[in-house]
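Q: Could you fold this chain for me?
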Amino acid sequence: RLRDRGLTFICANPDIVVERGSKLVYCAGAIAQEYEKLGGTAIYCGKPHKPVYDMALSTARALRPEGIRDGRVLCIGDALRTDIIGATAAGFDSLFIASGIHAEELNALEGAEPDHAALANLFSGHAHPRGVMPRLAW
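A: Sure. Below is the predicted structure, expressed as structure tokens.
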């Protein structure tokens, strides 16, 4: 019905899946993709699209009177498609968290050290993070 009304889907989080506890659940990006398959129009905001990185850097610079030098930004994330590729496209270094949404394919469940061959395969032909951590707790 939404498509028939010509409504545009604005997707604020293009992730296909996200972690909720120990489960992966579908996120807004998956819904937007399905809407497009039905013939609807979707506009994607957020990572991996550059405007969100520009806005974050602008906000950080406004909050930090001494400024932020180029090359001093590190983007942290667990999703290759949005976090790592987006950071690289925006010109930022990134830190990949292996125990996130790619944990199963990296044999990194429950924060285990990721399989290095699987990491190489995941990053093959894509952006490469500055570093990899098994997990991040905060």
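A (continued): The chain is about 30% helix and 20% strand.
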